[in-house]
Specification:
The protein is α+β, with helices and mostly antiparallel strands. Among the domains are: 69 residues, K Homology domain, type 1 (Ribosomal Protein S8, Chain: A, domain 1, 2-Layer Sandwich); 70 residues, Ribosomal Protein S8, Chain: A, domain 1 (2-Layer Sandwich), CATH 3.30.1370; 78 residues, Ribosomal Protein S8, Chain: A, domain 1, CATH 3.30.1370.10; 75 residues, Ribosomal Protein S8, Chain: A, domain 1; 64 residues, K Homology domain, type 1 (Ribosomal Protein S8, Chain: A, domain 1), CATH 3.30.1370.10; 177 residues, Ribosomal Protein S8, Chain: A, domain 1 (2-Layer Sandwich), CATH 3.30.1370.10. It has 46 helices and 44 strands. A 4-stranded antiparallel beta sheet has the order 40-42-44-43. A 3-stranded antiparallel beta sheet has the order 3-5-4, sandwiched between helices. It has a 3-stranded antiparallel beta sheet with strand order 6-8-7, covered by helices on one side. α3 runs antiparallel to α4 and α6 packs antiparallel against α7. The longest helix is centred in the N-terminal third of the chain and has 21 residues. 29% of the residues are buried. It is found in: Cytoplasm. Keywords: Cytoplasm, Repeat, RNA-binding.
Length: 1217
């Protein structure tokens, strides 16, 4: 009888347990020597990684790496789920009943290629160990043909899970999975302190290593500066390799978890596009099309007032990259159009320049002169600048300015007039006058009015070319000023100057409630009454009321007067020489003293008695408590100065390992302390015994005692903070530095971030550094930071150093002399970028004579094998591009240039694509195909680039031109309503005709009257296209009836007949090219003015009048075609109805008028849904028009027909009423 494992094995026999959704590298090392020889630069042995454990078995080297980068739009998730069988196991309890317990069974298989070669005794030992360790039951079967082992594990869920992990771990070969992730997300994958990566490592029992960075190859500009720049600032374009070592199941699960983090982080992208200051004002308008096109993206485009010089784009990564390319292209074209012209404009007129208006209307920016400049700048397109200047001139010439000097008012009482000017400005009177008279009024600021030396008060009145408005405004200002006389105000001057800052908070509420306004200018407080300022007084008691209000405000100020009693003024007699101690160097001591009391509670003036300068006195004024404290501090400072005439000295011991930080770069920290406290700080020389672990260095502080004590306190705080910091110096030969630093410093930054240390390498040009922890020689590296972090960083650096010593491989590449400049790049940018990107060292072996003979130069590369391979590939790619580079020029008649470009450059893009230019960066396309601008007069088209691509482009151009030269034009007269049949939705049908037959179809726009469709192409192709067009536009109607336009309204019954024909016969009616005219005739108001006899002469409610038509309807010769669409039998019936109605219309010689005093009576005639009126029409063969409520003749039903028919209609209407 087969075992359960054998049964399950049969089910799994044709299944592959480890199929993946994504291809990946799964390898097993062949032997220890090979694995050791190919060890990666990021191998755990050489560079321990976060969470990794050193394994006794070598780590295999990956052969392939799934790509991540700009070409990958979203990360691909990996999933692998072994088959399992789960079922609850029943067990018998004491009462003989069965109950279910949480026991499951899980089956899985191991392919022979994944299994370790384990002897049977060892295999049994392993399964026995797993059973005992997990308390599970394990059955195993082996296929005789495939050697696949199938396991069935029974037990509790957690125990089964653990047993499966142990079986896979102990019976499968170790594997290595390698894949790439964005370098930008490296820290996100690891997490702070490894919080993201550690759980993945621990849960899956794997080793994870993040290794070398892989960069996109970037095309560099030619050495002669002929190149375009494409700045790939996609933060996810650079990648690092992630290598996972472990058993197959754990490795895959770890990969899935890492890619889940990547997927979440790479959904969106934020990027910046720099915009020049000169084109920034025009960027928003120029980029409107891009913003509309990419509506799902967020754009932040600065205007000319903004200080920002970057356009920020946020949103979906791929859309952001596309939008960025378009924006750069637009900005480059815009920059070529912008020019600057300077114009001298008087400064007084600058305020009138309509900067925003001209920018909006003309798209030209007016820039006012900056400091040191005199002219106004006009920035924009040259063709628009003259218009902007003319508009600016017209605007400024419209304004006139007159200055009114208020100082002459009130007999020159400047103190009062200044207060009035501030009051009128503060209360908005000047603003009201300006608005009323449509002028602008400029008033001096409060600070100017507070200046006691100010002798004039100029009020500027500005008008837009209207002298009368200035006169009226000036008169109004004079009246307001004259109305406020000194005796209508109250001047308060007894508030202590020290308390003037508290006036507003003291009287604000009282002044508001009593209708009093106030102005504080210098030492003066002036009160104004709102009531006295009104033009019309209600009684003669207003003056007394104002006095009462002033009194209440004045009483509110008693609070400050009482507070003034708490003020104390002290004048200390201190020798002028001793006051320098009170001030301290650069005022440091006095600032320290004042900081010990409440802010704004005291004023201290040295060399003053409060009224005038006094060399040997110090003026102190403020609240008693503050004055007392400050006085005490000043006296103590003077006492200390007398006691320590040579200066006070104090010493503090600082740990030797932080003394360099105390000093700072070039003594920066000490200088900062000296400036803050005004003390002299001396650090003792380093002694031999200072090298001991707990060594201390004496720091001596000299100066004013108060300042010295504060300096000492600050130093102690700093020393405590930096006490644990240490510095080590490592000897590492300089030739290994570049590779240890890694591309763009990736390895060193990793260590610095990991251990919170600072690692310094000597500069490449051996320029001495000012940093205290800088390397002293070219073969020295320093590490500084917390002691534990430094120790770990030092250990990893030493391991990396040893690895580099064993992997310093060299390679020499021969470069054709014509490609040397391109390989080097401008100022060496290209070769430096290659070296930084791959992590190699380079050295050019230049010998001019040898190069002239051989035609080659040599460059020597040093690095790891993988780095050499990457660098040599980039160099060889450049060489290949130079050797295959050609430039071809062909002359093409300018009339065909537009055809070669196509709408929006579509044809030009298609030519490049067909030639194989899709892989070439878009910024290089202008070289592949350069067509002269329209109007340039040039007929030369140039193609530069790879030889094969250029040849294909030139051939395509010749073919297109030959086709155009052989083309002819034919015209088709096609009714306007059929144009849509060959256009299709969004032009799809026209495009398909053009593509299918190789012709161009030109169709008139909908607003054009022309009906001519032009077909351009070869004669045989035009014939085929015409057949297609005729097929698409053939008539689809059965019957056509010509109805003269004079009868159209009657026959169509104002459009109602069309609905009736559709309802009765399922027939549609069209009118060809006269559809619009027919529609107008149907919808036109058709009830003419009723004749006088149609109105009743008495008070009758109803009157039916029949009138013979004076003259026949005038035929204008226009015939409206009625084309009937539908089944043949139906259209025949519909045609009969129309012909009968047309005959009735032609025979209608009489007009009927039915008058009703109440239009509501018409509803009886109309009936439900028009049923009754339709019966009347049918019975009487008359045309009946029911008026609308807004018709002029809304009380008449209008009828047309023969006299007999109208009488029948009359009888029917009267019967209904």
């Amino acid at each position: 009888m087969p075992t359960p494992a054998e049964i399950i094995a049969a089910r799994l026999n044709n299944e592959n347990l480890y199929d993946d959704a994504v291809a990946e590298t799964l390898e097993v090392p062949a032997n220890n020597e090979e694995a050791s020889a190919k060890r990666s630069i990021s191998d755990e042995v050489a560079f321990p990684t976060l969470g990794g454990k050193q394994s006794s078995s070598p780590s295999p080297v990956p052969q392939s790496i799934p790509s991540w980068g700009p070409s990958m739009k979203t990360p691909v998730s990996v999933s692998s789920t072994p088959k399992s069988t789960r079922s609850p196991t029943p067990r018998v309890v004491g009462n003989g009943m069965k109950s279910k317990v949480s026991t499951i069974q899980e089956a899985f298989a191991l392919n022979v290629e994944d299994q370790l070669n384990v002897a049977r005794p060892d295999f049994i030992k392993i399964l026995t160990f797993v059973k005992q360790e997990t308390k599970t039951s394990i059955e195993c079967t082996t296929s005789q043909h495939t050697k696949k082992r199938t396991f069935l594990i029974t037990g509790r869920p957690e125990e089964v899970k653990l047993a499966k992990r142990l079986v896979i771990k102990k019976l499968t070969k170790p594997v290595q999975i390698a894949f790439t992730v964005p370098a930008k997300l490296r820290s996100r994958i690891i997490g702070q302190g490894g919080k993201n990566l550690k759980p993945i490592i621990q849960a899956n029992e794997v080793k994870i290593e993040i290794g070398d960075e892989e960069e996109e190859e970037v095309e560099q500009e030619l050495a002669d500066n002929v190149a375009a720049d494409e700045d790939h600032d996609d933060i996810f374009s650079k990648t690092v390799t992630v290598t996972i070592d472990g058993d197959i199941e754990g490795s895959k699960r770890a990969k899935n978890q890492i890619l889940a983090i990547v997927k979440e982080e790479t959904k969106n992208l934020s990027t910046k596009v720099p915009v020049d200051e000169i084109i920034k004002p025009f960027a928003q308008k120029a980029l409107e099309s891009v913003v509309t096109k990419y509506a799902d993206l967020d754009f932040a485009i600065p205007d000319y007032k903004s200080e920002k010089n970057n356009i920020v784009i946020v949103g979906d990564r791929d859309s952001v990259i596309e939008a960025r390319i378009e924006i750069r292209s637009i900005l480059e074209k815009l920059a070529d159009k912008i020019t600057v012209e300077e114009v001298p404009i008087p400064k007084v007129k600058h305020q009138f320049l309509p900067i925003d208006q001209i920018l909006e209307e003309v798209n030209v920016l007016i820039q006012l002169p900056k400091e040191g400049e005199s002219n106004v700048k006009f920035i924009g397109e040259k063709s628009k600048i003259k218009l902007a200047q003319e508009q600016a001139r017209k605007t400024t010439s419209q304004y006139k300015i007159e200055v009114l000097d208020m100082s002459k008012a009130h007999r020159g009482n400047l103190k009062h007039v200044k207060a009035v000017a501030a009051h009128l400005n503060q209360n908005g009177v000047f603003k009201e006058i300006a608005q009323t008279n449509d002028v602008k009024i400029n008033v001096p600021e409060i600070a100017s009015l507070s200046d006691e030396t100010l002798s004039s008060i100029p009020i500027e009145i500005v008008s837009k070319g209207d002298d009368e408005k200035i006169k009226v405004a000036k008169k109004s200002i004079v009246n307001h000023v004259n109305r406020i006389t000194p005796d209508q105000t109250q001047l308060i001057q007894d508030i202590d100057e020290f308390l003037l800052g508290k006036v507003d908070e003291t009287i604000k509420d009282v002044a508001k409630s009593t209708g009093v306004n106030y102005v504080v200018l210098g030492k003066n407080i002036t009160l104004f009454s709102e009531k006295l300022e009104t033009e019309e007084a209600e009684d003669f008691e207003e003056t007394n009321a104002a006095e009462d209000s002033f009194k209440k405000v004045d009483e509110a100020l008693n609070k400050l007067r009482e507070l003034a009693t708490k003020l104390q003024t002290v004048v200390l007699e201190v020798d002028s020489k001793d006051q320098q101690h009170v001030s301290g160097p650069r005022g440091t001591t006095l600032r320290s003293i004042l900081s010990s009391v409440e802010p704004n509670s005291i004023t201290v003036k040295l060399h003053s008695n409060g009224e005038k300068q006094s060399d040997n006195e110090i003026f102190i004024r403020g609240f008693r408590e503050s004055v007392s404290a400050v006085r005490k501090d000043i006296e103590q400072v003077i006492s200390d100065a007398q006691e320590f005439k040579d200066g006070y000295t104090a010493t503090i011991q600082v740990p030797a390992n932080v003394i360099s930080r105390i000093i700072g770069k070039s003594g920066a920290n000490l200088i900062s302390l000296r400036d803050e406290f005004g003390t002299k700080i001396d650090v003792a020389d380093e002694k031999e015994d200072n090298k001991a672990k707990n060594a201390k260095v004496d720091v001596t502080i000299t100066g004013i005692k108060r300042n010295v004590e504060e300096t000492k306190s600050k130093l102690a705080s700093m020393a405590k903070k930096w006490a644990d910091e240490t510095l080590v110096r490592l000897r590492i030969e300089h030739q290994y530095h570049r590779r240890m630093i890694g591309p763009h410093g990736i390895y060193i930054n990793r260590l610095q971030d990991k251990y919170n240390v600072k690692i310094r390498f000597p500069s490449s040009d051996n320029v001495p550094s000012n940093f205290a922890d800088a390397p002293k020689t070219k073969d020295e590296v320093t590490v500084k930071g917390p002691s534990k972090g430094v120790a770990k960083a030092e250990e990893e650096l030493n391991e990396l150093y040893q690895f580099e010593k064993e992997n310093g491989f060299k390679q020499v590449i021969q470069i054709p002399t014509k490609a040397v400049a391109r390989v080097i790049g401008k100022a060496g940018e290209t070769i430096k970028d290659i070296a930084d990107g791959s992590g190699v060292e380079y050295k050019f072996n230049r010998n001019q004579e040898e190069e002239e003979k051989s035609g080659f130069a040599e460059v020597e590369l040093t690095g790891s094998k993988s780095a050499l391979k990457e660098a040599s590939k980039k160099i060889n790619d450049i060489i290949e591009e130079i050797e295959n580079f050609v430039s071809t020029t062909i002359k093409v008649n300018p009339i065909y240039h537009r055809d070669l470009i196509g709408q929006g450059g579509s044809v030009m893009k298609e030519i490049i694509s067909k030639a194989g230019g899709d892989d070439i960066p878009r910024n290089k396309h202008f070289r592949l195909l350069n067509i002269p601008n329209e109007g340039s007069g040039s007929d030369e088209i140039t193609s530069q680039g790879d030889k094969q691509v250029v040849e294909k482009i030139i051939q395509q151009i010749k073919d297109i031109v030959a086709l155009k030269e052989a083309s002819v034009t034919e015209e088709i007269d096609l009714p306007k309503e059929k144009h849509r049949l060959i256009i299709g939705p969004k032009g799809t049908i026209r495009h398909s005709i053009q593509d299918e037959f190789g012709v161009t179809v030109e169709i008139p726009r909908s607003n054009e009257e022309s009906t001519i469709v032009k077909i351009v192409g070869l004669p045989e192709k035009i014939a085929a296209a015409k057949e297609k067009i005729e097929e698409l536009t053939k008539d689809d109607w059965n019957v056509s009836i010509d109805v003269p336009s004079v009868y159209h309204a009657l026959v169509s019954e104002h459009g109602a007949i069309f609905k009736q024909l559709k309802s009765d016969f399922n027939v549609e009616v069209t009118h060809g090219n006269l559809t619009r005219q027919a529609s107008k005739l149907s919808s036109a108001s058709t009830i003419p003015t009723a004749p006088e006899e149609a109105y009743p002469t008495d008070s009758a409610n109803y009157l039916f009048t029949i009138v013979e038509n004076d003259e026949e309807l005038k035929d204008d010769g226009v015939v409206i075609p009625w084309r009937l669409k539908g089944e043949e039998a139906s259209t025949a019936k519909a045609a009969k109805v129309i012909e009968d109605r047309l005959a009735n219309a032609k025979s209608a010689k009489f007009t009927g008028w039915f008058y009703s005093a109440q239009s509501s009576a018409f509803s009886k005639i109309i009936g439900p849904q028009g049923s009754k009126v339709n019966q009347i029409r049918k019975k009487s063969n008359t045309f009946i028009t029911i008026p609308r409520a807004n018709d002029k003749e809304s009380k008449f039903i209008y009828l047309v027909g023969s006299e007999d028919n109208l009488k029948i209609a009359k009888e029917e209407i009267q019967r209904l009423l």
